[in-house]
## 1
Amino acid sequence: MHLLLLLHALSVLTDCAAPWAALPWTLRAAIQSQLDGVRTGLSQLHNALNDVKDIQQSLADVSKDWRQSINTIESLKDVKDAVVRHSQLAAAVENLKNIFSVPEIVRETQDLIEHGELLQAHRKLMDLECSRDGLMYEQYRMDSGNTRDMTLIHSYFGSTQGLSDELAKQLWMVLQRSLVTVRRDPTLLVSVVRIIEREEKIDRRILDRKKQTGFVPPGRPKNWKEKMFTILDRTVTTRIEGTQADTRESDRMWLVRHLEIIRKYVLDDLIVAKNLLAQCFPPHYEIFRSLLRTYHQALSARMQDLAAEDLEANEIVSLLTWVLNTYTSVEMMGNAELAPEVDVALLEPLLSADVVSALLDTYMSTLTSNIIAWLRKALETDKKDWMKETEPEADQDGYYQTTLPAIVFQMFEQNLQVAAQISEDLKTKVLVLCLQQMNSFLSRYKEEAQLYRDEHLRDRQHPHCYVQYMVAVVNNCQTFKESIVSLKRKYLKHEAEEGVSLSQPSMDGVLDAIAKEGCGSLLEEVFLDLEQHLNELMTKKWLLGSNAVDIICVTVEDYFNDFAKIKKPYRKRMIAEAHRRAVQEYLRAVMQKRISFRSAEERKDGAERMVREAEQLRFLFRKLASGFGEEMDSYCDTIVAVAEVIKLTDPSLLYLEVSTLVSKYPDIRDDHIGALLAMRGDASRDMKQTIIETLEQGPAQASPDYVPIFKDIVVPSLNVAKLLK
């Protein structure tokens, strides 16, 4: 726009020459300068327009030439193929030396492998594979569908794969013995790891190229790192399974030995892996963590295999003790040399809770059967001892005993110690089981003791040491009671005692019953020997001067010399029972109506004799009970009281005397009174009738602590009416 105005002004000035001349020279110079620039610009625009036209014409000519040359380009395919072949030939020429030297390199590589020069062997193997892979890649680029040429190349380098496999075998052999190799020749192990690392890098590079070209050389990827861990896993499994050197048939302790070998091997291996092996592997391999996981899995699998076998009770205990306790103890995974890499709190259980529960159930079932069989066998062995002709052994205090309590509780102790190694809960269950089976066993023990007594009574000459072994049976009851208390105190926690007491039948009563029957059998033996002499009491022979009571006292004392081998709690009761029984037998003789006194003199002599003999018995039993610090002679007072009734000279006072007797001994019956009055021989029928009827009207009441003595005395079948005649 400005340019047009300037041109217009110029034309005006040119037409008006006079006005132009009249302008100041400075203005004229400025306008002239502008006009010169405009002329120059117009000239350049004109030149540019011409250049554009020339370029446009040239492009048109090029387009025309291109359209005419399309067919010519398609006819140059042969040239293109020649270029590709040239490229391949160039690669072949470049690898020509290697191609011709392939057989030699193969031999050298084979020799290096055989001599253990693994790094150098791998370097040559890499060269072979590189030449092969390069040629195959060029062939693939030229013609991926040409399998013949590919096969030709692969065939020519066929030994390469064999070398790779042979080298791999050597690597795996080293890895299989890695825990030994790392101690003797760690450099060899490092070489193996370096080779595996090289192969891993080659694998990654080839897989990256595959994404771009689709070409993968034969035998790739090798995945030697993955195979390495597989080999290590298999080696660990084989090592653990291979530790079983024995079977149950060859060694009853096979499982204990097997588990101990596993413990030692695993601990040693992990310590070596932590301190030495980890230094031979790159940190990102986490080789110790991997081996720890592998060992744990292999151990878990082995423990499950063992748990599935038909294990005996002791073998189940050995297995569970090892799994639940030994594995996490300082003897194995809790060892200080494995810390802090191994945290036992983070280790998974080797056996599941279901498997452990099943094993415990099997163990308890088997243990129950075993305990029953053991107890039966122990009792049979003890019964055989009862028939011996030699006295039983005595303990340190001189009391007779058999080995039965020691055998039984040694067995219980062993099983409880074993159960305690597994868990407190199992220990409590085993204790309850032992006590329950002990209760059943005592019932059989009681029956066998009764059979032993019955057999002896059929022939009192056999067994020869009947008394001594029956004493031992009684003493065993006290030993059993003490052992039960000791066992509960040792193996039972206070908080669990109440529950066990509820589930455990009381055995004290059973043991006391066995001891009581045993003591009764021994006293029966005494009084069977006294029977002849007891039958002399209250007879004419007795009245005239029999020594029956002397013999009775000597016999009783002689027996109680043997009974001194009975432990005190039972001997004390036995002396009291013998005292009561002796007095009772004496009174039974009174009630037998073996004699009827004919005069006051006879009654006096008989009564005085009864008093003397009561004192004899009193002295005897005081002597026998002297070590117990208690008076046990009140029974003899009964004989003295009866003697007073016999000795009474005034028949009119009989009622009063008999009343006094009845008040002191409330269990005396009218037939006893009738027999006593009949023995006096001077009471009239009316007097007897009056006394008995009066006493029947107001029977005396027994005090709570009164021990009956007349209750078991049976008067011969002679009714009261006949006694009154």
Note: The radius of gyration is 60 Å.
## 2
Amino acid sequence: MQAKKRYFILLSAGSCLALLFYFGGLQFRASRSHSRREEHSRRNGLHHPSPDHFWPRFPDALRPFVPWDQLENEDSSVHISPRQKRDANSSIYKGKKCRMESCFDFTLCKKNGFKVYVYPQQKGEKIAESYQNILAAIEGSRFYTSDPSQACLFVLSLDTLDRDQLSPQYVHNLRSKVQSLHLWNSGRNHLIFNLYSGTWPDYTEDVGFDIGQAMLAKASISTENFRPNFDVSIPLFSKDHPRTGGERGFLKFNTIPPLRKYMLVFKGKRYLTGIGSDTRNALYHVHNGEDVVLLTTCKHGKDWQKHKDSRCDRDNTEYERYDYREMLHNATFCLVPRGRRLGSFRFLEALQAACVPVMLSNGWELPFSEVINWNQAAVIGDERLLLQIPSTIRSIHQDKILALRQQTQFLWEAYFSSVEKIVLTTLEIIQDRIFKHISRNSLIWNKHPGGLFVLPKYSSYLGDFPYYYANLGLKPPSKFTAVIHAVTPLVSQSQPVLKLLVAAARSQYCAQIIVLWNCDKPLPAKHRWPATAVPVIVIEGESKVMSSRFLPYDNIITDAVLSLDEDTVLSTTEVDFAFTVWQSFPERIVGYPARSHFWDNSKERWGYTSKWTNDYSMVLTGAALYHKYYHYLYTHYLPASLKNMVDQLANCEDILMNFLVSAVTKLPPIKVTQKKQYKETMMGQTSRASRWADPDHFAQRQSCMNTFASWFGYMPLIHSQMRLDPVLFKDQVSILRKKYRDIERL
């Protein structure tokens, strides 16, 4: 046996050596023939050495990265595993593997920042009202540009919202129309909005055309098809959803305990067959007709009677007995089961009604899930565990229920109450991806006032904003900067502006004084200004317009700003007291002169009044304290059209600032100690620059009110009857016991 093994090994070794010599000989002969050809070429002067001559030749060079979905168009010699082929083919989007890093050109955003271009509408193309609202929201935003060369993101004017082929809003031949766009570039840096996709009976998420490398802002998108940090999940909203503004949430008071008449409610269609029918068909198992009221109806569609089951008649009868609005406003939890698609109108309806959504839609990527923590505002259920839902929600503590309801109101008003907010939230999320170094964190997105009003370019530190002192455990600043708006020449040392400057400088909380010189006359000499213990900086306004008083000047070194008109009369004691009040309310406007608004039924418009009553909704910035962030917000958030109106009228800038702050805080300003001298002094001014002496002044302010309300989409001003006075103010006690004793003498 051993001898046979030795013979077998020798035979194998000999065979291997023979094969080795054979193939080696072939290569040797080939190289010799190649050398002879080179020698012949060299002798005839035809030899051209190349850089590759000195390097070995590899059979295949490294290929650049290409998404798997594009490999089918490449050289067939590239090997793709069966699993990779399945992954690519199973996706409804060819750009399934797309992410910001691979399918987005960041260089377009470096030069001009985050600008969005909307394609011009093509002749003959019909656009549904909902999509018109989306485009109008973009074009009215601070991101919009009409120059495609400056754009970072592109949005189609072709209506892509409804891609259900049975819908009358369906746009035909969209594939060829999109491909013909000269800026399409395979969808790179494009954003496509979509509410409905697929059709009966399977309702897939296919939008009916090749989106290429475009991002999707899509409703009812599944986690399977959602591309994280690339697509944006948006809510399903109806065609009646307001374009701007929107109604406020229905939680008017924090009722304790926060329980309502019904524990859990639902009222909607029941699908007898097909996708989305399983969950709704099983709701009757949970319905008890008392505090859990889950109503469905089969009465929808043309041929519902052909398919009705034994429960349909009973369900339809009970369905008619209940009013949906009454149920919604008197329920603690609202069931949000999937329909034919994953999303449902019930979602936004529940948010607005402060009814905690109970989600029953497995696989739904919730709206704006990239930034919103839905565990703080909703209960995420499982369709397979429907019977456990009642016991689960009954186990939630009342404190938690109240917190959930409060969060629904914040999210509704911050991101969902209008088409404009939905669109702006989508754009802000994409902007945060592009500029990650200044992106908003989870606290900003999930705490009041929300991501839309916190502009990250202002600062990356939360302590620089007026809303997060308590969250960070910080105290409000202890110093303020007085900004005096001067519009008349300095001709006398007894002018009110100089007295005002001295009074403000004597405040123990004053860090510096800035005089904004918006007068047509040259700056006064330095010796004309009184000597003070704090620095006085005089800034000459370049444009000399009203809005310039709210520019974010780098010279303002404190968070608190005391805004003053040149003819305001205030004592040092009044300044000190107003600032101590502001320290308790750093997010609001705090000051002396108050005004109010009202609805004029006869004229069907908003009115402005300066009558002295116990009710007010504005504190004029002629003598008011606020956070300097509002200068930045006024300059960079508000549209140029409103600021241009203010500058042309030389009026209403104080009203616009009140609109802005109330829209952000959802709170009224705070008036401190009644001061009739302010009104009397202002009305007594006879200087040319006194706006109060202008007969058109009041009419202009009426007009401003309505223009501002139109842009905001609602009236953000809030009435208040609260006035803060010093402790022991006008009490019958010794004046020596009072800290701000001088105020009573004014």
Note: The chain has 23 helices and 23 strands.
